[in-house]
């Protein structure tokens, strides 16, 4: 009888902890939704500088020519950058993804810029050197956007210019085979001549986990094909940096691959993979 009481108590504790965890994640998700005003849920083709969550970031810039419309996907509500007209076609930084071309990779980045500068770069009116990403997730900025806002710059059925010269396994030029997510984050902050990596925003992590989980399920992306920019362009790029929350994405959202207990052992890694130093080109 005592054993049954103890067992029941343990089951209750486990259940209660699970409920708390679910409530915590739900609370963060709800907070993200509150940041997007319900009264503008049907917002379509509105200048970005007129949208509540972007007003502060664009307070000194009028007539950007960037229009946004709300959309819902992956259980979240976000903003999509509307396609520019034919006369400004160079501001559309993407090309058609060939029919039947598989999406095999999800690539994580940081912007190294605030959201305003990122939006300017991703919609610059130029024919060469275009840069873009399918999705951008904001961080909380003192004089800018709230954290965790989802912004679509490139439709997922199009090829964005986020990977550059890249390769993984037998694939090269991963733009055509991937979805790219940019996280607004400066990467490295220099204070008093000391370089420090910048932490990721909590709302941003939540949004990234929700969206990334949806993407890998939608395209059946292999866990080992959820990568950082530095993985696919190791001699050129360092983003998303060592503070990117890979472990949280894996444990809380089932995104990506993570080390097993054995792989956490340095001796095991040396014996199995025989790692060697590589000289990075400058």
TrEMBL record:
Key word Cell wall biogenesis/degradation present: yes
Catalyzed reactions per annotation: Hydrolyzes the link between N-acetylmuramoyl residues and L-amino acid residues in certain cell-wall glycopeptides
Gene3D superfamilies in the cross-refs: Peptidoglycan recognition protein-like
Coiled-coil boundaries: none
GO molecular function: N-acetylmuramoyl-L-alanine amidase activity
Its EC number(s): 3.5.1.28
CDD domains: PGRP (cd06583)
Name the record gives this protein: N-acetylmuramoyl-L-alanine amidase
